[in-house]
Amino acid sequence: MTPHSPLQVAVGGAHPYSITIGPGLLADGQALAACVRGRHVLLVSDSGVAPLYLAKLRAALQQVRPDLLVGEHVLPAGEASKTLAEFGRVIEALATLGATRDACVVALGGGVVGDLSGFAAACWMRGVDCVQVPTTLLAMVDSSVGGKTAVDIPAGKNLVGAFHPPRAVIADTLALSTLPARELRAGLAEVVKYGALGDATFFDWLQQHAGALLAGDSALLAEAIARSCAHKAAIVARDPFEKGERALLNLGHTFGHAIETEQGYSAPGREALNHGEAVAVGMLLAARLSTTLGMATAADEQRLRALLQALQLPVEIPAGLEPQALLGRMRLDKKNVAGRLRLVLWRGIGQAEVVPDVDEAAVLTVLEPR
Ligand code: NAD
Ligand code: GLY
To answer: Where is NAD(+) bound in this sequence (predicted)?
Structure first.
């Protein structure tokens, strides 16, 4: 990756903050130090990220603020760690640190670390600051922004959580150079989501640059991150608590979460789709259902399939997952109202909409193996 100057995206609303995107930010303690109001900082990371970046971030912070009391908590990498038990361990780490109400939790890692740390920050003493330092593409374009925090339970993904906007997001694009190719692809699925749900021009741009993005072109990735964050920032500023349009950001997620829950949450050594891959499959299922319901053309579904395939993302439900079981999982989605399925579908590329009371029989047809 070659150096580029940092980009800034502002998130408005009642709790404004900035997203800074650029190379080398992990080694620059100024931005992080500027977010710390009190004396206590808990750095939370996972077993994949900590050996690469935790000491660097800690040293950068302490060089600027040697007075800080800094604790560390490292959890096992993988979705299987996004649990109430791990949440409890982060809370214990805050207690051990003696963190007061002006403490700051720093989430250094992907969406798992970000969601879990953010939830702990939301709960410790009824809410302390959380700075998101995303290290996956997925976390840079989605999970670090907007303040959704949560853990999974066996019954479903993200079912226990809180809205807790970060104090800041600091995304060091150099971290993407160590990201496994599979995780880069997973992040690209969430990038595609922004084009698919509301920006046909961005979708075209992604089609044009799919190969270079996949190859890790740093300037194009930085542009994709900034454009994705700008989309998310605009939506969450208008609808922070998902009373309306924010639900569109869940395109593909009701299907995707059902797949993730039904297969068992991914962990090192366990064959399972990760979140971004499940969202890729989920977006295509949403497009297929839209075609089935006569809302959109098969041509747009085909364009989405082609882009996901160009990005080497899966587009089919993994073998062995039962349609009825997946439907059962979908019934526990947070968007549902009065026990009726409420899904994000589309009229075509860039035109997603929330559809209430979707016919379960139609959903089953797209869940059947092809
Ligand atoms: P992840 O956090 O599990 O990270 C993926 C893997 O990459 C891990 O093994 C991690 O150790 C490794 N890794 C991370 N950064 C690395 C780096 N720079 N170099 C080398 N390895 C690195 O997965 P994810 O895809 O980042 O996040 C998925 C989670 O995000 C899911 O739990 C999902 O529900 C959540 N999510 C939340 C929101 C939200 O709005 N809060 C939005 C989207 C997704
Ligand atoms: N990732 C969906 C949202 O933040 O609303």
So the answer is: 111-115, 135-136, 148, 157
